[in-house]
Amino acid sequence: MSGLASRHAPEPGLEERCTTCLIHPGSPLPEGVGADILGVKAWNLARMASLDLPVPPAFVLGTGWCERAAELATAHWQPALARLERLTALRLGDPRHPLLVSVRSGAPVSMPGMMETLLNIGLTDSTLPGFIRVSGHPRLAWDAYRRLIGGYGEVVAGIDARHFEADLDEVRGGQDERSLDFAALRTLAARHLETYRREAGEAFPQDAGVQLEQAIKAVFASWHADKARKYRSLHGLSDRMGTAVTVQRMVFGNGGGLSGAGVGFSRDPSSGEPHPWVDFLFNAQGEDVVSGRRSVLGHDQLAAVAPQVWQSLLHAIGTLERAFGDMQDFEFTVQDGQLFLLQTRDGKRTPLATARIALDLHDEGLITAEEAVERTRDLDAQALAQHGIAADDDAGLVLLGRAPTAASGVACGEIVLDEAAANARHAAGTPCILVRQDAETRDITALDLAEGLLTQRGARTSHAAVVARHLGKVCLVGCEALQIDAPSHSIRLHDRTFREGDYLTLDGNEGVIYAGRARVVTTVPQALLDRLERLRRQVA
Description:
Elements: H1 3-8, H2 14-17, E1 20-23, H3 35-50, E2 58-61, H4 64-67, H5 74-88, E3 101-106, E4 117-121, H6 128-135, H7 138-155, H8 161-172, H9 182-200, H10 208-221, H11 226-235, E5 244-249, E6 260-265, E7 277-282, H12 286-290, E8 297-298, H13 300-305, H14 307-324, E9 328-335, E10 338-346, H15 351-363, H16 369-375, H17 381-384, E11 386-389, E12 398-402, E13 405-407, E14 410-416, H18 419-427, E15 432-436, H19 444-449, E16 452-455, H20 463-470, E17 474-476, E18 482-485, E19 490-493, E20 496-499, E21 503-507, E22 512-515, E23 520-523, H21 526-539
Parallel strand pairs: 14-15, 15-16, 16-17
Antiparallel strand pairs: 1-2, 2-5, 3-4, 3-5, 6-7, 6-9, 7-8, 9-10, 11-23, 12-22, 13-17, 14-21, 18-19, 19-20, 21-22
Helix pairs in contact: 6-7, 7-9, 8-9, 15-16, 16-21
Protein name: PEP/pyruvate-binding domain-containing protein
Organism: Thauera sinica
């Protein structure tokens, strides 16, 4: 069943959506299901597996279980887990050959970063020695364990992530956490266990089965989180769709050497230019890239250090575009020089990129003229208008710094540091710029009210940056020169201090931050409009 066919099939009933499905490379597409049952993330995972692309094996609990989560018991997913264990020759909770899994959400439509993911489920005090023997990598094991305790504590136990960040800051002493050795990470894991006990009022669970059961319930529950509700409200999505949950064998980008994690777009999501747009971190897990709490660089280092991996990724990107017929937003892990694809979806993009990509895909023979016209039906000169700073605007603007661009355009407004300030400025009819330490999706309400987003940390491909781009907001991330002093409602850029209410201009076209209010000019991409018009006449 194709994705298009599944969209037009009769809506399945609740019982049909309460299903489980096993996915592994080379497996055929499961019959009788689609994205409405498996969620778009798992459905696309199944499509990648059917193309024999390198995806870790997994099982999926269908979207119907989101509505019936209170009834979900271990017995419902234990047979699927047993099949996954046989496929991997590993067992959850086995002290000698432990299976470690991720637990991921996935609605029938893409909702980047609005629901939760948990990694490294299955690590306990008793399985950790076995994992060290199997992997031969003590540092990897202790890094995965401390990540599990912090992630599980935040998502399942509801502990504020700042408590675990404080533990990390104490142990690393200013070092990059990726440079910590296994002894430091072992100390950090011990601190996290103490923090968990203190904040949760009970010990971190040392039963791998309990971890998995609670992780599945927590991911289903994240469908009802405030940020997920707000996202659905902004985009007119039904609360009844629910999310599926994917339980997938872990692969590890945090093992040092030729290991790392990345997120990318098969084409530039801002301009539509036909080249990959990838962020990658060596010795990292995927959440380091998409969470918005870490600054991430582009793909140049990956291409230079591991050219064979980069070529494998380029080959996979080409396969994905040919199979899906659209620009893809994908996540991947490299483990000891081996590429694994974790997910793909049609990438969110600007109107300009929408037009460029549709036209180029038609020229490349990947979509029909009719499909290209349909994808660009609502685009006209006004929708494609581009905003820039007037060339002669040199009065009143002071260059403050630069930062990677996640979404282009120009935004001017008063500095706000939180949702309350954004609400106040919006109510007063005053444009504002949201300034945050991290690019996090929990800021979606404030982001919706702002003209743009500026962050101290984060990646161009972090979930919040993806959402900002889709909302049409200018976005600059990972500005290392930025310091935020929340108690005094002020920020500092280089040697200058600004308070809430002062004006900033974000130039997302050039990746530049200015003090003051720019004079903005509007241009129209006439050549692109001419291409659209020629195609429309051809189809008419």
